[in-house]
Amino acid sequence: MSVVDTILQSKTTAFSFELLPPLKGNGIDSVIRTIETLREFDPKYINITTHRSELVFHQLPNGLFEQVAERHRPGTVAVAASIQYKYNIPVVPHVLCSGFTKEETEYVLMDLQFLGITDLLLLRGDKAKHEKAFIPTGHVHATDLQQQVNAFNKGFFLDGSAMKHPGSPFSYGMSCYPEKHDEAPNLASDLYWAKEKVKAGASYLVTQMFFDNQKYFDFVDLCRKEGINVPIIPGLKPITFLNQLTVLPKIFHVDMPEAFAKELGTCKTDAEAVEVGVEWCTLQAQELKAKGVPSIHFYTMMATNSVKRVAQAVY
Q: 0.85 exceeded by the pTM?
């Protein structure tokens, strides 16, 4: 059963979360700890992020520096397979345009299909840290990546040749932005592309994090008026550090509601910020659940214990 079917058949608001593969050189223990912390809430699926390579400088013995591409968090496919095998929980690996060639994407799809992992989240991904603007390695847009997956589902490789034994097709979700993607010229353009994603086969949309529920509700209303009728899954993240008051709006281009920002502004320590973050995220989740959203998706990076506290209050 696909993730979207599981969500649609759930009698109450489903719970899911996202985690990151461990940093290069570290074991999978951090991943296991996150799952063990949150599995009591019956996650319907677990997302595993994918990370592109970044250019870094290594100093050579002669004192010069060499520029090399290095991926700090490899292992998305392996982590997904490990979770599915150990916990029998559906996994949703991210598949990116950013930093990956079309051929690399094809190999990833083949590996995932061999492993029986057929739910994906398709994303363009962020620009490299050294880039002023996004420079494609393979696909330019997530909708281009989507067409490759669609062709793969129909039994065709990149070069147009037919597969002798096509496997189970992929079901996939894609992203959306209640406060507009930062590169979109306006919300109307953003809505147009969200609709195109659904028309081309996205079975659900999951939002960028937000801290103002009204913006989510307004966005869903606009989507419905545009004929976008797939589930739109709200993504939430509890604040865990004082500096996130300014860092998150800068990186993710989201607004902090005035009341939330004011309360965070009174905090003197990260510990106090954690309490405010849990309280605000709990109120968000409770309202969303009361409004009957199909699922709530939690971003757990540096926030696993806070997500657990929110889930305890909501689920």
A: yes
